[in-house]
Amino acid sequence: MDIFNSTVKGDYDVYRRNYERMSFRERQEIPDKWFEMKGTFGAAFRFDRVAPLITYIHHPIGKKRFHIFEFGCGEGKLAMKMFGSFDKCILSYEACDFCSIALSACAPSLVERKKFRRRYLDKQLWELSEEEFNIEDYTIFLSSHTLEHITEEELRKLFKRIEGIRFLVLELPFDPWLKWMGTQNTHVLGISAPDFVKMLYQFGYDLLRMLPNTFAKSRKTSEARTFLFEYRRG
User: Fold this and answer.
1) With the C-alpha atoms ordered 202, 203, 209, 211, is the resulting torsion angle positive or negative?
2) CB of 54 within 8 A of CB of 169?
3) Which has the closest alpha carbon to 200: 220, 170, 175, 173?
4) Please, are residues 228 and 167 in contact by the beta-carbon 8 Å criterion?
5) Each residue's pLDDT tens digit, 49-104
6) Rounded CA gap, 129 and 108, in Å?
7) Cβ-based burial of 46 (10 A; exposed 0-12, middle 13-18, buried ≥19)
8) Residue 44's closest CA among 227, 230, 228, 226?
């Protein structure tokens, strides 16, 4: 079966069943094609939830200014919002994605900012060497609606690689009633919200805040949650 064409046409079950057999490059081809067709990845993030967590870091915790690394930035829509609200707090902002077409579509006004840098990933982030990716360069690891597109095993590799970055601001969709989240497009992560928090605790992170605090009551509603973790080990 042609996984690429089937997925592009909307047969996401084919993608999920074959995800672990696909090479990194094969996985890249699908978002590249989507972006060519649609010209955008949309804006799934909830900035009204991300913003108070960044404010929480800036004020009560006393981090006046910070270096941000965004994992899965698409065409930079969240970065634009971040600079619009927190420009004075941001010392540097590095945004990465494995979709080169999306990166090339970042707005000129964003690309021209001295504090902003795009990074194309030609391999998984956890495969980068210390010279290529040094966690000491960043204060905040930011990722919105990206982690659900990798498996639990890959998620553990990611958290092991970024362990030590002080703050994690993460937004993922969680089904309020089911452990498995892979009910939409290319979501392959199968983990519950409590297990997600437990996993990060194993890597030295404590949950500081989570928005919203409760799941939606409707069984028909899947709810994104936005988390703020702080590294407490060591």
Assistant:
1) negative
2) yes
3) 170
4) yes
5) 999 999 999 886 656 789 999 999 999 999 999 999 999 999 999 999 999 999 99
6) 30
7) middle
8) 226
Amino acid at 203: F
Residue 198: count of CB within 10 angstroms of its CB: 12
Question: Are 201 and 227 within 8 A, CB to CB?
Answer: no
Which tokens in the block code for residue 18? 């074959």
Residue at 75: amino acid letter: E
> Dihedrals φ, ψ of 42, to 5°?
80, -165
Computed on alpha carbons and rounded to an integer, the radius of gyration of the chain in Å comes to 17
Instruction: Write out the two tokens for 48.
Output: 């009204």
Nearest CA to 212 out of 228, 221, 225 is that of 225
**Domains of the chain with CATH codes:** 46-231 (3.40.50.150)
| Cα–Cα dist 132/48, whole Å | 32
Q: Are 141 and 165 in contact (CB under 8 A)?
A: yes
Q: What does the block give as tokens for 10? A: 């909307």
CB 143 within 8 A of CB 70: yes
The pLDDT of residue 31: 84
Looking at residue 157, its amino acid is: K
Residues 226, 53 contacting (CB under 8 angstroms): yes
Peptide bond into 60 cis (omega under 30): no
